[in-house]
């Protein structure tokens, strides 16, 4: 046997020098790795969030030019709710409806890709994310063309009985929800796909073997096992949909405006920073409350 | 009745394909609009007049080329920084146990759960308070912020899927920590990092809401589209939209086909 | 010898759980040494501590005179063949094998890599990626990648676990051949008792973080030191017995009203409560009319099950005190196997017995049935 040449040279005299103490893994290394990114999040996310909380309590009689004074004006929240509660409700409603439709449309698609598509799977997945390759605004504007008063879709409905001749889709809640569904559907499909792909097809066959009808197999096996995906998908769809204002702006009228439209105009048009900040916080709070009660109801904390 | 039998057996596929068609419909419309001469400047409808003139000169619309250049510049800088910072964080979170790990995870999750309008407005408030002039660099800062979380999540997932024995094997074969990272871990995580970078690129290129709050007078491509939407959209925008789509689609399909060929041996 | 691997009082705790408990062990240089045990017995943890992948809670690991306890894995002259191989998927077979050489600054790796590929009989596979190899081929490459570094000790962590039975047999022969050829110390961790017995010069049976018995495969099989080993390595029939005296070189035992003999040299315990053990294949069956050879230990019983397995027939019989006993009978003679329900006498040559210490309480449950003379109790 060839002797190993390297670090093995034993000390003469038989007794080896005491070994170095076990190398302590470098405890500071993870902190060093986290430092730049963490600072970025701290400086540009945490600090602005805290500042926004402060801004929401400023005295509203100030202005950007003259400066605001901190008055701990909790009344700002009351004022904001009184003035804009319909927008808050509408945001939750539209986003909620859009999320449900996304789930209903997205589940069969995700199931089909995950369990039935065979060698077309990757191509179909690319097709799901394909809309992302076209700019969000351009896509949404395309819906303006599809749903326009002179377009074929509206024309089809007008030709049906029970639909008035001046029936329109554009500038209605239907158009806004349709746009929301379209824009956020991939966020529903991808997490659903991820859990359904891991679902063992033999479990479904076993359920069928044990006399379950297809509907029962779905209700008692497929759906429970894909719950993590359903939860992740609903959250990923609902959160951005509730804060969105582009669809309401482009496909709706001020009658369909959501809370995002109000925040946008309060910041950029009316320059009423305290109220805008209060509304932002209300939106955040609404979303977080819904998210956490939903997670609790669904009995999982895998999402965070 | 054979038809209904077939539908009963294949309805999942039928519904799935219909939903896919729904996803593709607007893209088709964008393409049609790019080869269609509008009846008037404000019209979103298709007219009977077809043309290739917009494809011949996509940058004919005033300001479109400049806006694209700004968008590409911002996307490149933001992607570079976010990918580096995010990858470092992902390594810390996936490879080390330390105090404050759970807090860090929440800190990374929160930006993803924050509506864009809130994130954009709070950043605007910060910049105004600090009297930072709005423009190219404030947009870059904002884009790095929202790309960062996505990079961390993507790279972390790839790292979690990595067999820890591979690193042990490298150490067993005389590679120290740094050599193990450079010769084994990094090459294996690279696809994840590339995916994260591509995601950042598209998120940044596509962003309108946060950019709108923090751009000042700088005009990105989405900002240009938004501004034009008020006065009638130049059809060249649809040319750019279609071209970007085709480019990205072909690229991804090629990558998919190549990885499938490799996967055949597994 | 100069490069024996010595573990002294090695302990490893994970949280509150002790995985390896004050273990001391010497692996002689050049030997093929197997650590055998069920999953969770601490064998893999022991191996990983030798590799440097796990820090010791206490104790020392030495290689010859050199203390390697605190050395990082990449400073140790040992290499590992990992479970599921851990071949680098992004490198070719050649680059995988050359990995360790390059790390140590060896310039000309080509020749050594080629030699190794020759040794594992895959000379034409250098340019392939691991994903293009079958399981058995990956296994050989993993072996080559470790051996090319000429380690003082080669560690094998369940290396054949992922292979199917036929391939496993083939690789066992192959591993043994390679070990003989290179002469490196092999420390092999496995849960497969046949694999350990086939290949190793020395086997250490581990349970609950300790070594239950250490010795050559024959020693351990023929003369196990505890009921655990007697049943972990193959099967044994164990009867609760008490030592009643001696006759020459033999111990006299009484069990369930019967009298038995066993050589004193095959007893781990020579007084009081003991287990009397015998391997199933050492036992013969006689019909009640036939005479068992004089001096043989005898147990009466009724056959409850007959399993014809080609080369042998495995019988289960029930003793009058309700204990089950198994007997393997080679199908060397002509004739039909005996049918269940047949009354038989099981007998064996006393030197095939072994005697183990029995704690008070152990086996008493079985003893209780001795009150049932007809042997009909469940």
From TrEMBL, chain A:
<keyword id="KW-0472">Membrane</keyword>
<feature type="compositionally biased region" description="Low complexity">
    <location>
        <begin position="1"/>
        <end position="14"/>
    </location>
</feature>
<feature type="region of interest" description="Disordered">
    <location>
        <begin position="1"/>
        <end position="22"/>
    </location>
</feature>
<protein>
    <submittedName>
        <fullName>Spermidine/putrescine transport system permease protein</fullName>
    </submittedName>
</protein>
<feature type="domain" description="ABC transmembrane type-1">
    <location>
        <begin position="88"/>
        <end position="294"/>
    </location>
</feature>
<keyword id="KW-1003">Cell membrane</keyword>
<feature type="transmembrane region" description="Helical">
    <location>
        <begin position="123"/>
        <end position="142"/>
    </location>
</feature>
<dbReference type="Pfam" id="PF00528">
    <property type="entry name" value="BPD_transp_1"/>
</dbReference>
<feature type="transmembrane region" description="Helical">
    <location>
        <begin position="170"/>
        <end position="194"/>
    </location>
</feature>
<keyword id="KW-0812">Transmembrane</keyword>
<dbReference type="GO" id="GO:0055085">
    <property type="term" value="P:transmembrane transport"/>
</dbReference>
<keyword id="KW-0813">Transport</keyword>
<keyword id="KW-1133">Transmembrane helix</keyword>
<feature type="transmembrane region" description="Helical">
    <location>
        <begin position="276"/>
        <end position="295"/>
    </location>
</feature>
<feature type="transmembrane region" description="Helical">
    <location>
        <begin position="92"/>
        <end position="114"/>
    </location>
</feature>
From TrEMBL, chain B:
<dbReference type="GO" id="GO:0055085">
    <property type="term" value="P:transmembrane transport"/>
</dbReference>
<feature type="domain" description="ABC transmembrane type-1">
    <location>
        <begin position="68"/>
        <end position="255"/>
    </location>
</feature>
<feature type="transmembrane region" description="Helical">
    <location>
        <begin position="106"/>
        <end position="128"/>
    </location>
</feature>
<keyword id="KW-0472">Membrane</keyword>
<feature type="transmembrane region" description="Helical">
    <location>
        <begin position="134"/>
        <end position="155"/>
    </location>
</feature>
<feature type="transmembrane region" description="Helical">
    <location>
        <begin position="72"/>
        <end position="94"/>
    </location>
</feature>
<dbReference type="InterPro" id="IPR051789">
    <property type="entry name" value="Bact_Polyamine_Transport"/>
</dbReference>
<feature type="transmembrane region" description="Helical">
    <location>
        <begin position="184"/>
        <end position="205"/>
    </location>
</feature>
<protein>
    <submittedName>
        <fullName>Spermidine/putrescine transport system permease protein</fullName>
    </submittedName>
</protein>
<feature type="transmembrane region" description="Helical">
    <location>
        <begin position="12"/>
        <end position="35"/>
    </location>
</feature>
<dbReference type="GO" id="GO:0005886">
    <property type="term" value="C:plasma membrane"/>
</dbReference>
<dbReference type="InterPro" id="IPR035906">
    <property type="entry name" value="MetI-like_sf"/>
</dbReference>
<feature type="transmembrane region" description="Helical">
    <location>
        <begin position="239"/>
        <end position="257"/>
    </location>
</feature>
<keyword id="KW-1133">Transmembrane helix</keyword>
<keyword id="KW-0812">Transmembrane</keyword>
From TrEMBL, chain C:
<dbReference type="InterPro" id="IPR003593">
    <property type="entry name" value="AAA+_ATPase"/>
</dbReference>
<keyword id="KW-0067">ATP-binding</keyword>
<keyword id="KW-0547">Nucleotide-binding</keyword>
<dbReference type="InterPro" id="IPR017871">
    <property type="entry name" value="ABC_transporter-like_CS"/>
</dbReference>
<keyword id="KW-1278">Translocase</keyword>
<dbReference type="InterPro" id="IPR003439">
    <property type="entry name" value="ABC_transporter-like_ATP-bd"/>
</dbReference>
<dbReference type="Pfam" id="PF08402">
    <property type="entry name" value="TOBE_2"/>
</dbReference>
<keyword id="KW-0813">Transport</keyword>
<comment type="function">
    <text>Part of the ABC transporter complex PotABCD involved in spermidine/putrescine import. Responsible for energy coupling to the transport system.</text>
</comment>
<protein>
    <recommendedName>
        <fullName>Spermidine/putrescine import ATP-binding protein PotA</fullName>
        <ecNumber>7.6.2.11</ecNumber>
    </recommendedName>
</protein>
<dbReference type="InterPro" id="IPR008995">
    <property type="entry name" value="Mo/tungstate-bd_C_term_dom"/>
</dbReference>
<dbReference type="InterPro" id="IPR050093">
    <property type="entry name" value="ABC_SmlMolc_Importer"/>
</dbReference>
<keyword id="KW-0472">Membrane</keyword>
<dbReference type="GO" id="GO:0005524">
    <property type="term" value="F:ATP binding"/>
</dbReference>
<keyword id="KW-1003">Cell membrane</keyword>
């Amino acid at each position: 046997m060839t002797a190993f040449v390297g670090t093995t040279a034993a000390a003469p005299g038989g007794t080896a020098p005491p070994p170095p103490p076990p190398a302590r893994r470098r405890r500071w290394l993870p902190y060093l790795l986290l430092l730049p990114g963490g600072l970025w999040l701290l400086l540009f996310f945490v600090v602005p969030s805290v500042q926004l909380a402060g801004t929401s309590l400023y005295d509203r009689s100030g202005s950007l030019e003259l400066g605001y004074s901190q008055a701990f004006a909790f009344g700002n929240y009351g004022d904001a709710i009184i003035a804009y509660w319909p927008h808050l409700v509408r945001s939750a409603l539209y986003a909620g409806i859009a999320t449900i439709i996304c789930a209903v449309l997205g589940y069969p698609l995700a199931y089909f890709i995950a369990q039935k598509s065979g060698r077309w799977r990757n191509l179909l997945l690319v097709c799901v994310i394909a809309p992302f390759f076209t700019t969000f605004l351009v896509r949404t504007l395309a819906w303006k063309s599809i749903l326009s008063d002179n377009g074929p879709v509206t024309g089809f409905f007008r030709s049906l009985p029970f639909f008035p001749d001046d029936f329109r889709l554009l500038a209605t809640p239907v158009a806004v929800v349709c746009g929301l569904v379209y824009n956020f559907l991939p966020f529903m499909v991808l997490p659903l796909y991820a859990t359904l792909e891991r679902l063992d097809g033999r479990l479904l066959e076993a359920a069928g073997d044990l006399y379950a009808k297809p509907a029962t197999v779905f209700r008692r096996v497929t759906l429970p096992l894909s719950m993590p995906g359903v939860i992740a998908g609903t959250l990923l769809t609902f959160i951005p949909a509730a804060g969105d204002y582009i669809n309401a702006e482009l496909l709706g009228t001020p009658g369909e405006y959501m809370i995002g439209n109000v925040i946008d105009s309060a910041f950029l048009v009316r320059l009423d920073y305290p109220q805008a900040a209060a509304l932002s916080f209300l939106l955040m709070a609404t979303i977080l409350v819904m998210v956490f009660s939903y997670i609790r109801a669904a009995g999982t904390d895998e999402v965070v | 009745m054979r038809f209904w039998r077939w539908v009963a057996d294949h309805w999942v596929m039928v519904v799935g394909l219909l939903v896919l068609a729904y996803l593709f419909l607007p893209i088709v419309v964008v393409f049609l609009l790019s080869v269609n001469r509008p009846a008037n400047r404000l019209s979103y409808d298709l007219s009977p007049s077809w043309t290739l003139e917009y494809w011949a000169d996509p940058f004919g619309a005033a300001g479109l080329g400049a806006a694209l250049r700004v968008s590409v510049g911002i996307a490149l800088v933001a992607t570079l920084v976010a990918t580096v910072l995010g990858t470092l964080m992902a390594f810390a979170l996936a490879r080390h146990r330390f105090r404050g790990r759970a807090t860090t995870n929440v800190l990374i999750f929160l930006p993803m759960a924050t509506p864009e309008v809130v994130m954009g407005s709070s950043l605007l408030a910060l910049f105004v308070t600090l009297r930072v002039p709005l423009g190219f660099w404030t947009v870059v800062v904002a884009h790095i912020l929202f790309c960062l979380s996505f990079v961390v999540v993507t790279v972390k997932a790839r790292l979690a899927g990595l067999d820890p024995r591979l690193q042990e094997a490298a150490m067993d074969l005389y590679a120290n920590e740094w050599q193990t990272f450079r010769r084994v871990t990094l090459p294996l995580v690279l696809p994840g990092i590339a995916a994260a970078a591509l995601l950042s690129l598209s998120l940044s290129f596509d962003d309108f809401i946060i950019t709108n709050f923090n751009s000042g007078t700088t005009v990105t491509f989405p900002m240009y589209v938004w501004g034009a939407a008020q006065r009638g959209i130049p059809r060249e925008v649809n040319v750019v939209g279609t071209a970007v789509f085709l480019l990205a689609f072909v690229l991804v399909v090629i990558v998919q086909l190549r990885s499938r060929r490799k996967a055949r041996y597994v | 010898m100069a490069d024996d691997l010595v573990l002294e009082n090695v302990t490893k705790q994970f949280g509150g759980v002790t995985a390896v408990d004050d273990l001391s062990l010497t692996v002689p240089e050049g030997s093929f040494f197997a650590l055998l045990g069920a999953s969770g017995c601490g064998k893999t943890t022991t191996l990983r501590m030798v590799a440097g992948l796990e820090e010791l809670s206490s104790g020392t690991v030495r290689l010859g005179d050199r203390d390697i306890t605190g050395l990082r894995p990449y400073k140790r002259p040992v290499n590992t063949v990992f479970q599921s191989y851990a071949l680098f998927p992004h490198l070719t077979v050649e680059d995988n094998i050359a990995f360790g050489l390059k790390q140590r600054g060896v310039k000309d790796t080509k020749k050594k890599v080629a030699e190794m590929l020759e040794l594992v009989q895959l000379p034409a596979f250098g340019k392939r990626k691991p994903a293009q190899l079958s399981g058995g081929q990956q296994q050989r490459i993993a072996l080559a990648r470790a051996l090319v570094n000429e380690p003082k000790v080669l560690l094998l962590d369940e290396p054949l676990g992922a292979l199917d039975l036929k391939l496993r047999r083939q690789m066992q022969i192959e591993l043994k051949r390679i070990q003989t050829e290179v002469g490196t110390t092999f420390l092999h961790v496995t849960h497969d008792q046949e694999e350990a017995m086939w290949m190793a010069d020395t086997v250490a049976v581990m349970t609950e973080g300790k070594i239950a018995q250490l010795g050559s495969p024959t020693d351990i099989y023929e003369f196990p030191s505890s009921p655990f080993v007697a049943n972990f390595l193959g099967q044994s029939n164990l009867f609760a017995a008490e030592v009643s005296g001696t006759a020459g070189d033999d111990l006299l035992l009484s069990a369930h009203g019967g009298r038995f003999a066993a050589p004193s040299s095959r007893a781990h315990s020579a007084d009081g409560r003991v287990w009397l053990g015998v391997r199933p294949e050492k036992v013969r069956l006689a019909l009640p009319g036939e005479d068992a050879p004089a001096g043989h230990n005898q147990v009466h019983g009724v056959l409850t099950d007959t399993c014809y397995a080609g080369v042998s027939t495995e019988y289960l019989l029930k003793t009058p005190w309700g204990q089950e006993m198994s007997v393997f009978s080679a199908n060397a003679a002509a004739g039909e196997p005996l049918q269940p329900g047949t009354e038989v006498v099981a007998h064996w040559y006393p030197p095939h017995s072994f005697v183990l210490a029995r704690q008070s309480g152990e086996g008493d449950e079985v003893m209780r049935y001795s009150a049932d003379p007809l042997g009909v109790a469940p």
